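Worked example 3. Consider a protein that binds 2-acetamido-2-deoxy-beta-D-glucopyranose.
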Amino acid sequence: MRLSLPFILPVLGFLSLPAHSSSLFPFEKIQLTREHIESLPDDQAKLFAFGGQFDENSAQAQETANAAARCRYTPSDGKWPSTKAWQNLAKQLSAENVLLKPTPQSVVCYPGTAENKAKCQDVTKNWSNSHVQTNDPIEVLSPVFQGLTCTPPTIFNSGNCTQGGYPTYVINTKTVLDIQLGINFARNNGLRLVVKNTGHDFTGKSAGAGALSLWTHGLRDLEFIKNYVDGSGYKGPAIKAGAGVQAFELYKFANEKGVVAVGGEGQTVGIMGGYIQGGGHSPLSSLFGMAADQVLSLEVVTPTGDFVTANATSEPDLFWALRGGGGGTFGVVTSVTIKAFKDMPVTAASWSLSSTTLGKDKFWAAVKAYMDLILSHVDAGTYSYYTLSPVGKDFSFAMQPFFAPNQTAQQVNSLLRPFFSTLTALNIPFSPKITEYKSFYPAWQAEFPLEPQGAVSGAPGSRLFPRSNFASETGRNITFNAIKQMVETGHSILGFHMAPTLARGGNVDNAVNPAWRNAVMHAIALLNWPVPSSPSSILSSWNAFSKQTLQKWRDITPGSGAYLNEADRLEPNWQQSFWGSKYARLLEIKQAVDVKDVFWAANAVGSEGWVVETVDGLPGENGKLCRVNGTVTAVGEV
Ligand SMILES: Cc1cc2nc3c(=O)[nH]c(=O)nc-3n(C[C@H](O)[C@H](O)[C@H](O)COP(=O)(O)OP(=O)(O)OC[C@H]3O[C@@H](n4cnc5c(N)ncnc54)[C@H](O)[C@@H]3O)c2cc1C
Ligand SMILES: *[C@@H]1O[C@H](CO)[C@@H](O)[C@H](O)[C@H]1NC(C)=O
Ligand SMILES: *[C@@H]1O[C@H](CO)[C@@H](O)[C@H](O)[C@H]1NC(C)=O
Ligand SMILES: *[C@@H]1O[C@H](CO)[C@@H](O)[C@H](O)[C@H]1NC(C)=O
Ligand SMILES: *[C@@H]1O[C@H](CO)[C@@H](O)[C@H](O)[C@H]1NC(C)=O
Ligand SMILES: *[C@@H]1O[C@H](CO)[C@@H](O)[C@H](O)[C@H]1NC(C)=O
Ligand SMILES: *[C@@H]1O[C@H](CO)[C@@H](O)[C@H](O)[C@H]1NC(C)=O
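Given these inputs, the predicted complex is written out as structure tokens:
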């Protein structure tokens, strides 16, 4: 039996009782049971049965036949569930109108019954505000991977508005029951299942043509546990948060409790969804490690529809895999309990330099001076985020910000003194803005502005650069030259410096890419192609970018990898790149928990057997999800 703590605490107030996360959120207590399935008429039981619930009967036979089909069924297939089956699903869900059949927002901009010029202007005006995509059941921040089939025409003219790579049905999940029903319905009917939280995924993994989508955005409960004690030894403050909680509200909540939580820099990122499951780098990573290192416990609905707790002693394999193994792969997480830490002051610095005023030689000398010092910066516990961009024939370097948690302005000035001295010696005028904040929340709010919707004509690629690249003068020169060349050949770079070493994250054993543990730089390079471009010319420049341009970064970082949450969809040898030595165990766990491949996402663990056959041949979600012909899962040496 579960006793609610607020109820017993007043009675036993004189004792300081240990609290742990085993108390579920109210939405997690509303669950689907096997008994309920058994009480349903046969035709309905078949739709909603748990994995393996009816061993010998027709539900199992149907499930097996559907699971064996070459492609997941889409609305144009004869085997797509009947209207009546969808109505049954709608009826079983926890409330009315939980099952949605949404159209893209820009449908109002294209010829058809929904066309509406005023509404189109509104959608267009708001389009770059990422709250628009995160608050919508289907829109994503990476429209290229959706197939760009319905975007505001002044931003990208799609010609037509079609559903493209967007899902057909969405369950706006309110309870664990809704998630269980959705997973069982998709599995039993051979449908493609996707999970959308915010839609931030860099490669479109929260979309999927013809899919049933589970939208976790509504699961926003938050709880502060002042004295969390878990069976594996952690004692201290913790936060339990629903899967839909975004950075802006997690940080606000933590601030109100006098603590900080390890989350991302981006305001609207879904911290407890793809972010934390994929690792999660943070402005606090050089102090505490990756976000996944902070996880104490998760609640999760598995591919069979079962609801379990994953922690150090319950479902330990799942617990290990969900901390770094990636979203959309092992089940749907409904909440996560993470460590929290005492709040702290923060100092942030920002500056920008341009070759327009400095000339190219001095400009690059200034950038090199900064790069040469990064080990001292990350070892002092800082995180930095900057852009290095070609601007016409010139270049710019904008540090926005250099973020120093737990440091005063005086400490930051002395940390950056060697850099400033070099600038002075080079006769470069500079005027950094250095601001001291009393606590984390106002610093984060002021220093990390809302980031816009992703590009309609480009793709990212990235690499984790290890400490050894910066440990010698030769290494620093080689690394700097590779960065410089990337920018000189027309690619903007988003750079991050941090050191999420295991020493800092605690001695945790999880599925985070081992390459992160030595990394001191995570660099994202951007490819842009002209508009319009034919699919074949996009594909050839994309392949050249992935296989040749980015290879130069791989060549100087042998054995390292890339961050799966901010990566190239065409990343070669992605198993090694995203997980290194962790991949073999992750694949074993995936094959054990998801026998029927209910969960699939591009370049996710165990995704080798399936591919989206897109309508235009470009990598993305606009097409059917089908088995790769004649393959037995082939995994490269990892
Ligand atoms: C503007 C911007 C800023 C960013 N800032 C950072 C940053 O500071 N640090 C960092 O590390 N990364 C950052 N990222 C990358 C971010 O980590 C990924 O985009 C991540 O996938 C976001 O997770 P989400 O749940 O919000 O997004 P979604 O796109 O909704 O989901 C991402 C993936 O996780 C799956 N998923 C989502 N929720 C669940 C769930 N509850 N259970 C199972 N699977 C789930 C989805 O199916 C999908 O495959 C940023 C991205 C953007 C676009
Ligand atoms: C656009 O933003 C305005 C305010 O910023 C808001 O009132 C309006 O509802 C938004 N429209 C859409 C379509 O999101
Ligand atoms: C609109 O879509 C239809 C059907 O896919 C296609 O035949 C037609 O060419 C498209 N029109 C434009 C303007 O792209
Ligand atoms: C894991 O969760 C279970 C179920 O809630 C709980 O009984 C157990 O104590 C937890 N284990 C740890 C290490 O906290
Ligand atoms: C922050 O600084 C204080 C005082 O300098 C120190 O005691 C504390 O350990 C630091 N916290 C972290 C997380 O490094
Ligand atoms: C590194 O590059 C600088 C020029 O930027 C050069 O002066 C120096 O000799 C180089 N050092 C090594 C070890 O290559
Ligand atoms: C698999 O084979 C079918 C026909 O047998 C073909 O239509 C399809 O394009 C193939 N898919 C892949 C990924 O090669």
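Take a moment to read the result before moving on. The radius of gyration is 25 Å. Residues 491 and 526 are 5 Å apart (CA to CA).
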